[in-house]
Amino acid sequence: MKKLIALITTVFLTGCSVFGIRSASEPSYQVLKDYNSIQIRHYPALLVAQTEINGDYKTTSNQGFQRLAGYIFGNNKTRQKLAMTAPVIQEQQSQKLAMTAPVIQQKTGSIWLMAFVLPPNYSILTAPIPVDSAITLQEIPDKKVAVLQYSGSLSEENIKEKTELLSNWLSKEPYQIISPARSAAYDPPWTLPFLRRNEIHIDIE
């Protein structure tokens, strides 16, 4: 099982060169305004399994994905297997504080948070309890989110570039930023980069 998870993770986080079809379910949301590549959405409350890792982007991405994939593949106290959903959320935290919501800025020895959205039929009371103490379940309240969608590789450079684009756009619009940015990835690991759906999310008022 560990080898399988490691293989899936490696393919997910390296260059994707094979055609892929998006099949995982994703949370429902309401589009409040559409500006082509940028949308203002309302998301309902969500339940996520999340983990924090201290290190560089590549290392923490691999470790975080393996850890959370293990949880949904049955490494939980009831050995339940959960359906894979999208997106996979990553965010970089500027400092280690009591957890708020899932990513951001940089510092030496940065802490990255990765989260899997759990299927909607689970609640904080019914979701399987992780065996790994580094994984926690978190209820995320409903929110209004500015979203920039893009294709291409899920690299740290792309995340930083698109975060800056969305932040700059919001600074010129009548929206107040109330969270750091976070990355959301929707596609299976073998999807061709130009067909990928990646997003940057920033909570707003």
Please provide a written account of the structure.
This protein is α+β, with helices and mostly antiparallel strands and 205 residues long. The chain has a single domain, classed as Alpha-Beta Barrel (Multidrug-efflux Transporter 1 Regulator Bmrr, Chain A). The chain contains three helices and nine strands. It has a nine-stranded antiparallel β-sheet, covered by helices on one side. A hairpin with a 2-residue loop joins strand 1 and strand 2. Helix 1 packs across helix 2. The protein is globular and about 50 Å long. The termini are far apart. About 15% of the residues have low confidence.
Shape: globular
- What fraction, in percent, of the residue positions are helical? 10-25%
Strand content: 25-35%
Physical arrangement of strands within the biggest beta sheet? 1-2-7-9-8-4-5-3-6
Q: Specify the CATH class.
A: Alpha Beta
Strands, count: 9
**Chain-averaged pLDDT:** 83
The count of helical stretches stands at 3
CATH superfamily: Regulatory factor, effector binding domain
> CATH topology, what is it called?
Multidrug-efflux Transporter 1 Regulator Bmrr, Chain A
Order of helices and strands: HEEEHEEEEHEE
